Amino acid sequence: MNKQQPKLTSFYVLLVLVILIGLGIIGYLQRQSINDWLVLLSYKPPKIVVQLANQDGMSAYTKRVFYVNNPQIETKSAFSIYCPNNSEQSVVLGCYHLGQNGIYILAVNNRSLYGIEQVTAAYETLHAIYQRLSTTQRSTLNSELLAFEYHGLNNPIVKAQIAGFKKTEPGGVLNEMTSLFGTEVSNLPSTLSKFYTQYFNNRQTLLNYYNDYESAFTLRQQQIASYDSQLTRLQSQISSYESQLTNQLTQLESAQANLNSQKASGQISQYNNGVVSYNLEADSYNSLATSTRSLINQYNQVVAQRNAIALEEDQLVQAITANPQPVKSVN
Asked: Torsion angle of alpha carbons 172, 196, 98, 100, nearest 10°?
């Protein structure tokens, strides 16, 4: 019996060693989940953060990624510190700091832009999700993103955004495309749609938020373009009328000088005939002057309407811009 004891002890030591190695491998493979669990032990998401996650229809995993990044909804002054924007050509609504160092979302209180915080929350969380993908997963996703960009993307707004990212952060374009396609593009290939289904219960909800607040801009931009077209037409017509008035006034002044000369020299018959012609020309001039004033009044009314809409658009821009810009108008 005493000779068999070392063998039994060796077996248990080997078993414990195997178990420890197995636990170590499992721990390594699940290190991200374990880290998330440890972080969330001491984190209680604020009500507004929970609300954003629920409104976006985040899956359980997506909520976890969102929460471990301690999302903050910040006013402009604080937001500009966490998410500085060095480009005058783009608007920054949120940012994700690598390594679970935070998701920051600009607080937007304009009612016409309701939904922008929800879309931004999803957008930045997708950045964090992209960073967590394995090398194989990311490679597969990147291929699908590029294939769609080259062969299926027909959204001019998204195309312009991608072009901007290629200039400002070429190394992060695919990451940005992941967020852009997920929150702004309706018609995606089945493979990409399936990818986003893992993270959002109903992606259409995000698209509805995006389309609603984006229409607040596009509607006003269309109205401004229509007003600008009217102003161009009116200005052209006014310029034409003013040119005609100048020519007619020159002719009237010349005719009046001729009438005065005829009257002074006693050419009464010629004078009387000239008066009739002069008065007809004067009536034509006065009628054209009245039409011109009417066009000028119409032009000024359109300018007022155009600037009112431009002010509304500017207020929308100011609501999502941490560094306010001056209001633009026309005279």
From this structure: 180
